[in-house]
Automatic annotation (TrEMBL):
Subunit structure: Part of the signal recognition particle protein translocation system, which is composed of SRP and FtsY. Archaeal SRP consists of a 7S RNA molecule of 300 nucleotides and two protein subunits: SRP54 and SRP19.
Species the sequence originates in: Halogeometricum pallidum JCM 14848
Name of protein: Signal recognition particle 54 kDa protein
Gene from which this protein is expressed: srp54
Binding site for GTP: 99-106, 179-183, 237-240
Any GO BP annotation: SRP-dependent cotranslational protein targeting to membrane
Family (UniProt): Belongs to the GTP-binding SRP family. SRP54 subfamily.
Main localization category: cytoplasm
EC id: 3.6.5.4
Chain ranges of the Signal recognition particle SRP54 helical bundle domain: 1-82
Length: 439
């Protein structure tokens, strides 16, 4: 799916403006990716209309390609929806964990404690789950692995009492993480219990722990827990599996909160602070979106601010000399192959590349270096007007550069081929250009 979104974006390469069909296609691909990542339908629809609106009505900043522009809009709108990471100050605090049984609360409690310990704070985990057999042993063992303080009482049946005694017993700790019991479904008993624990420990933050595979069930859970204890942040667990955690966005939206942590494995160190970029890239099934968009932008700036003030758009005007070719080759060294350089020229459709002979793109590093040496043996006049280079001049240049006559001929051929391609382009009217882009 990600590859078809990428495909649609790639079709925009070289375009400086988007039409409605382009935007339609991109938006459809984004919808498909998000829906398959379990993002709620109504969220997807809201998002689509914002992206559509902006992509069609906002003017791309000067020199920005349509692809770059739409990528940035998609990224910004998703960041807007998902939000920044839940603010977790590195100071003494109490955090209460809520969630259904098996969502990963106990594992997350130990992981978060480990995380705080790496920040130089002193955490303690308080286990109040008296419902699930083995809950005490599991939590105790994980806290040993995390090398953090632990409190629990396997003989006590009242979770509220454990919570109270646990807070007292660990009063020297900076961070109190209170783990709670889950149930298979939302039951009144569970809600009552967590409300009482919440009143007892008076947490600074209550976090909802959700399995990445949660899907649409996230909505009811988020609603219930938010109504009873107030949810300040979400933790998505099991992101090391295939599920992408899109359902958690529903919970974020429903509770008007944000995502704080991600669980990415079974050991206590498999925890990450949430960071929108990586999560969005994963949702869309694309590589690092932020980096991608920044890279395109940077490449364009370098092209435009190159030492020689050489702008790839210049080759679209006037004659294409050997000097242009040399600069083009230098640019290629910096930016990648010719076809990518061409992509950065606003107005060149992706279809154009298919029209080029394969050889036109085939300027290998070795050949480029040889061509450079050859051009050093050429006069200004020859560089500006390669047509005057006949057989005797070829012989002289070959001798002067120490390269064979054949290679000099190749250089001239290469130049002719590129010149022809560019001429063909300069001669095109807008209609031809449109037709070409549609291909
Ligand atoms: P609780 O019932 O909410 O306390 O959930 P647990 O912490 O006991 O976790 C339930 C199961 O999910 C356990 O087998 C955990 O090892 C597993 N688990 C929790 N978090 C993760 C995670 O991020 N990745 C993977 N692969 N497994 C996890
Ligand atoms: Mg548990």
């Amino acid at each position: 799916l990600g590859s078809s979104l990428r495909g649609s974006l790639d079709k925009l390469q070289g375009k400086s403006r988007l039409d409605e069909d382009d935007v339609d296609e991109i938006v459809r691909e984004i919808q498909r990716s998000l829906l398959s990542a379990d993002v709620d339908v109504s969220l997807v629809m809201d998002l689509s209309s914002s992206i559509e609106d902006r992509a069609l009505h906002e003017e791309p900043p000067g020199g920005t390609s349509a692809r770059d522009h739409v990528l940035k809009i998609v990224y910004e709108e998703l960041v807007d929806l998902i939000g920044e990471s839940t603010d977790i100050p590195l100071e003494p605090q109490t955090i209460l964990l809520a969630g259904l049984q098996g969502s990963g609360k106990t594992t997350t409690a130990a992981k978060m404690a480990w995380w705080f310990s790496t920040k130089g704070l002193r955490p303690a985990v308080i286990q109040t789950d008296t419902f699930r057999p083995g809950a005490y042993d599991q939590a105790k063992q994980m806290c040993e692995e995390a090398e953090v303080e632990f409190y629990g009482d396997p003989d006590e049946e009242d979770p509220v009492k454990i919570a109270r005694e646990g807070m007292e017993a660990t009063e020297d700790a900076d961070i109190h993480i209170v783990d709670t019991a889950g149930r298979h479904a939302l039951e009144e008993a569970l809600i009552d219990e967590i409300e009482e624990i919440e009143r007892q420990v008076n947490p600074d933050r209550s976090m909802l722990v959700l399995d990445a595979a949660i899907g649409q069930g996230a909505k009811d859970q988020a609603r219930e827990f938010d109504d009873s204890i107030g949810i300040d942040g979400v933790v998505i667990t099991k992101l090391d599996g295939t599920a992408k955690g899109g359902g958690a966005l529903t919970a974020v939206n429903e509770t008007d909160s944000s995502i704080g942590f991600l669980g990415t494995g079974e050991t206590v160190q498999d925890i990450e602070r949430f960071e929108p970029n990586g999560f969005i890239s994963r949702l869309l099934g694309m590589g690092d979106l932020k980096q991608l968009s920044e890279r395109v932008e940077r490449a364009m700036q370098e092209t435009q601010e190159g030492e020689d003030d050489w702008d790839p758009e210049d080759i679209m005007k006037g004659s294409f000399t050997l000097k242009d070719m040399q600069k083009q080759m230098e640019a290629m060294n910096k930016m990648g192959p010719l076809d990518q350089v061409l992509d950065m020229i606003p107005g060149l459709g992706g279809g154009f590349k298919d029209e080029l002979p394969d050889d036109a793109m085939d300027v290998t590093q070795d050949r480029m270096r040889s061509f450079d040496v050859i051009m050093d043996s050429m006069t200004e006049e020859e560089l500006e007007n390669p047509r005057i280079v006949g057989a005797s001049r070829v012989r002289r240049i070959a001798r002067g550069s120490g390269k064979g006559e054949e290679l000099v001929q190749e250089l001239l051929e290469q130049h002719k081929m590129m010149e022809r391609t560019i001429k063909q382009f300069q001669g095109m009217g807008d209609g031809d250009m449109q037709r070409m882009m549609k291909k």
